[in-house]
Amino acid sequence: MKILQRYFFVNITQAVAFVAVALLALISFMDLTSELPSVGKGGYMMQHALVYVLLQVPGHVYEVMPVAALIGTIYTMAQFAQSSEFTIMRVSSMTTGMAAGMLFKIGIVFVAITFLFGELITPRVAPLAERLRLAAKGSTVSAEFRSGMWTKDIVHADGVRGPAIGSRFFNARQIRPDGQLVDLKLYEFDTSMRMRSLITAASATFSGNNIWRLQDVTETLFQNSRVLPDPGAPLPAGTTIQSTFGQETASVATRKLETMDLVSEITPKILSVSRSDPERMSANELAVYTRHLAENRQETERFKIAFWKKIVDPLAIFVLMALALPFGYLHTRSGGVSLKIFIGIMIGVSFLLINSLFSHLGMLSTWPAFMTAVAPSVLFLLLALGALWWVERH
């Protein structure tokens, strides 16, 4: 059995590696083609485009590995069927369960490789690729709005650990590749959402320990002559309050500072994550950013789904390899190897499309994030079990 396991491993690994390289070459060529219009603009040259495309490869490895495992396994099983090797193995007392067990052991290797690229390599290489690209072009990080980048955090009484005493909205016109913020505005509110200060700064540099060093600062403080009751607290009978922002603000004080230290939950890592594609983020980064969004009462569904997909998608390799096993039972008269590979490609494309479809449906229908991520794999697992049942009966 060890010899047979090794034989399966060598043949399937070679086939999967060949398919993965072919898919990566095709995707890299398409990436390079999309970069060509930018070549020659500013300092962005052909060598920069090649390096950028090369640094994108680890992210594509994570994407193509499930499909490569499916097509490579189908090719190997079809070859075994064509040469009657699989039939001889079955006659020699190899059961379907034993074959599935061998594929499962081989799948562990592919799952480990996928997790390695998805959790360790891609989250570090993808930001580097973007920084090199922006540095070569001499531009800053693009923002979602024309007014710049917006984010929100909680103001604490003592650093970032004390009780919450308000909230703060960040607005940075530009974010440089080195993480420096340019043309920064900070709007601070108390727990009743009354504006208490407006801080503008020419730039901000992160100093570590949740501290931003602001340069060329103008701070405007809105001071109250009285404190209004908590809007959520019940008022005594017969009490009425008529107030406007002007009545709540007794005075406005403005001061200018060359530098100012600001303590904030927002860090360069959170800012980089907020600009990143969730598909390029690690599960740990997604968990941290989702928690940050939840604490600030912002929408988290997209990142929850991306988090569970990061966990579930590599495990889908086991499902897709199980779906390839029935092809070993189909003899040459049921179709040549090329036809079976074509069917495998169609199954792989269908899996990617259904996986993407469920992600969008999950966000639109507010389905549980875990169910949204695991549903395509469960669907294809049922298809694999049905196919195995059919080939054993026929």
TrEMBL record:
<feature type="transmembrane region" description="Helical">
    <location>
        <begin position="370"/>
        <end position="391"/>
    </location>
</feature>
<protein>
    <submittedName>
        <fullName>LPS export ABC transporter permease LptG</fullName>
    </submittedName>
</protein>
<feature type="transmembrane region" description="Helical">
    <location>
        <begin position="49"/>
        <end position="75"/>
    </location>
</feature>
<keyword id="KW-0472">Membrane</keyword>
<dbReference type="GO" id="GO:0055085">
    <property type="term" value="P:transmembrane transport"/>
</dbReference>
<dbReference type="InterPro" id="IPR005495">
    <property type="entry name" value="LptG/LptF_permease"/>
</dbReference>
<feature type="transmembrane region" description="Helical">
    <location>
        <begin position="7"/>
        <end position="29"/>
    </location>
</feature>
<dbReference type="Pfam" id="PF03739">
    <property type="entry name" value="LptF_LptG"/>
</dbReference>
<feature type="transmembrane region" description="Helical">
    <location>
        <begin position="311"/>
        <end position="330"/>
    </location>
</feature>
<keyword id="KW-1003">Cell membrane</keyword>
<dbReference type="InterPro" id="IPR030923">
    <property type="entry name" value="LptG"/>
</dbReference>
<feature type="transmembrane region" description="Helical">
    <location>
        <begin position="96"/>
        <end position="117"/>
    </location>
</feature>
<feature type="transmembrane region" description="Helical">
    <location>
        <begin position="337"/>
        <end position="358"/>
    </location>
</feature>
<keyword id="KW-1133">Transmembrane helix</keyword>
<dbReference type="GO" id="GO:0043190">
    <property type="term" value="C:ATP-binding cassette (ABC) transporter complex"/>
</dbReference>
<dbReference type="GO" id="GO:0015920">
    <property type="term" value="P:lipopolysaccharide transport"/>
</dbReference>
<keyword id="KW-0812">Transmembrane</keyword>
